[in-house]
Amino acid sequence: MKKYNLPTASQKVETVILANGEFPSYSIPLSILNHCNYLVCCDGATNNLYKTSKSPDAIVGDCDSLSEDNRIRYSSIIHCISEQETNDLTKAVNFCRERDLKTITIVGATGKREDHTIANISLLCEYMNDCEAQIITDYGIFIAIDRPAVFESKIGQQVSIFSIDRCSITTNGLKYPIKNQTFNNWWQATLNESTETEFSIDTNGRTIIYRAF
């Protein structure tokens, strides 16, 4: 059973995708962004990198929101993909997968427009069969699973479960136990709480787990 650890500010990850939502300000996502080995920016997100000392290794997207200065400065690493069947985040994830970069941390994926936030979080379910992707925000971590998993936690940590498919879910280590329940709406398994230093979730359908910082 796979275990998902909590991210830390001292953690160094291989690949980060910076999306064009709210630029991170909390120490954990900001440190992960600053210290990653390989940084892919969704095109317009590049405009916010002046807030760090980091430079992108690749810029991916339809290039509709990239500033002219950055278009010139980073011309050699821009990968412009004009098709509109996918958003810039998915273009960036596909770019990584094609280069065998399959452990991906996504920051800047939430905030600003709510429809973009919901779409980006739900896309974790599309990515999980080909790579291991997580979204880290200023407030917590989103991960998608479709099989039993264990999650590192802290006692009292707030936990929410979003059942995308109608599937049976069982939990261990949460304040409000769930046993072989099927949920009809996203809100129904939210606002739970960890009672241990780890908890487990048994599911066979697409399920998104949120752990708050």
Describe the overall structure.
This protein folds into 2 domains: 132 residues, Rossmann fold (3-Layer(aba) Sandwich); 67 residues, Jelly Rolls. 18% of the residues lie in helices and 32% in strands. The protein is built from 5 helices and 15 strands. The strands form 2 sheets. Strands 5-4-3-2-6-7-8-15-10-13 form a 10-stranded mixed β-sheet. It has a 5-stranded mixed β-sheet with strand order 1-9-14-11-12, with no helix packed on it. The chain starts with a strand and ends with a strand. The mean pLDDT is 95.
Topology:
Blueprint: E1 2-4, E2 15-18, H1 27-35, E3 38-42, E4 58-61, H2 68-73, E5 78-80, H3 88-98, E6 103-107, H4 114-122, H5 124-127, E7 132-136, E8 140-145, E9 149-152, E10 158-163, E11 168-172, E12 181-182, E13 189-193, E14 198-202, E15 207-212
Parallel strand pairs: 1-9, 2-3, 2-6, 3-4, 4-5, 6-7
Antiparallel strand pairs: 7-8, 8-15, 9-14, 10-13, 10-15, 11-12, 11-14
Labels describing this entry:
single chain; 213 residues; alpha/beta; Rossmann fold; Jelly Rolls; 2 domains; ten-stranded mixed β-sheet; five-stranded mixed β-sheet; 5 helices; 15 strands; 18% helix
Distance between the termini: 24 Å
CATH-defined superfamily of the largest domain: Thiamin pyrophosphokinase, catalytic domain
Question: From N to C, what is the helix and strand string?
Answer: EEHEEHEHEHHEEEEEEEEE
Judging from the principal axes of the Cα atoms, what is the shape?
globular
**What is the helix tally?**
5
What is the CATH C-level name of the largest domain? Alpha Beta
Q: Write the CATH fold name of the largest domain.
A: Rossmann fold
Structural class: alpha/beta
Strand content of the residues, in percent?
A: 25-35%
Tell how many strands the DSSP assignment holds. 15
Mean pLDDT: 95
User: How many discrete structural domains?
Assistant: 2
